[in-house]
Predict the 3D structure of the following.
Amino acid sequence: MGQNSVRGEGTRKRVPRARELGWDDDLYGAGEATGASGSAPEKATEADAPASTRSSRRRGDGGGKADDRTDAVGRAAARRRAKKTGKRKVLRWVAITLSLLILGTAGAGYLYYQHLNGNIRGGSRAGGDSGVKKAAPNALGDTPLNILLIGSDSRADAKNVALGGGKNLRENKPLADVQMLLHVSADRKNASVVSIPRDTVVPIPECKSDDGRETFPATTNQPINETLGRGGPGCTLTTWESLTGVYVDHWIMVDFAGVVAMADEVGGVPVCVKSGVSDHPTRLQPGGSGLKLPQGTHEVKGKQALQWLRTRHAFGSDQMRAKAQHMYMNGMVEKLQNQNAWTDTGRLMGLAETATSALQVSDEIKSVKGLFDLSMQLKNVKLDRLTTANIPTAEWSQDRNKNVLVQKSADKMFAMLRDDIALDKNGDPAGAKPKPTSSAKPKAVAEAPGSLGVTVVNGTGSDAEPAVEGRARAITEILQGKGFSGAESSKEGGSRADTVVTYPKSAADQGKANAQSVAKALGLPDSAVRADAKTEGITLVVGADWREGTVYKRPAAEAGDIPDGAEVLRGDTKDCMYIFDPYKWDGKS
């Protein structure tokens, strides 16, 4: 053993009678001097006695009495030493026991933590490349948080078949029948939830399967719920990014069994109907969720919670079903807040066990810590600052059973999300527009406009409106007049909600600087500039949000300025779902 750094401590020679002092006591016993081994100490021999005692005995000079006194004193001292050593031994055992308990508890906690981590299923965040980048931080360095919530109709698991039916659907690719984008403001004071009905037809970008082995080509006019079967939740996320221009940080997915488990864990979720409801098959409309509730407010759990979320016919449409889902979500948030779920250890443990088994999440939050940190981002949002809404849609002209976006209204809501504008006015009574965040400046300096090649694409067409004829040529002439002599209009058209300037991902900072110079010349915001792995040069796609004019004007939006048809529902508002006549129930039959 090396010398101790503390003065006066370190390696010592063995001290005479040290065993009697307890310094060398065995860990599990006090050694021979205490009799802790269970055997009597050996009788001292003449050789063991001190020299003065041996000589007095040999002389016979009355040493007997002295010996008696010496023996008595020795026995008393031994008793005192044994008593002290016994106390030390008890304390030592207490310390050892406590240490084992602490280590055992820590070990059990670690094992439980690993158990929870093992529950969580994950997958790639994105299934393709949308080119959308995370919003620039505000003055405090904070950015909005966007989470895509997905409800899967997968029947791959026996539990899901039992709850949702459809044994013959076990081999089918799953559909993302519920899709909600949860947007939490940069200051974490308000949150918005927007839904797109499952049968809304949209362009779906190219996606790859989670293992990278299968590639799904881009399509147009396909229902958005099919994205889940085209590469998993990551493809659904990439589609939302391409559609909205909003960077989505994470996705969270739940299936039928997960819905039931979470509803049971919180003890039921409050919902309300204006009249009794029975969602059953009719002569004109087969199917139905089986939901049956009398008039008023009820806490649904188990299979009934799943029935509420799946009901469409009784509520009238996919849009109204989304509103019912928003009501359910608001009710669950209220229930969790009332249960102090973020501060009560017991509730937190129960939720952790259920949630880690019920949810599948994107890989970057696939851990107990990741999910806990994420939940802490949401705990300060008050119910009166939680707003839910639908992206406005209309019947598709080619198929009345499907929907298309009402483009102008949708663009306005997408812009509000991109610019972190609240869907409510509670945090800003005057309704003043928040100051936009500034984008990070590129490290490179833009090259001369005349040296840049720019391809201009007419993307103003949509399912609701045809493309504006000659729009690419008109914008090309504007660019040429501003010194971009290499600008050319493309003969190929497209369909895009928002106007963007893309540059090759490989061009890095120089490409970004050049693209931003094009955007600035046209009055486009920096958020319109995006990297694209498939773009060979700078490409300007004139979207449906810029169908006219020579200078781009960002769609005006103020806090709470939500377009008609969005079916807005605030977290603190108590509302009840309207029931269509064929599905009204008197609560008796």
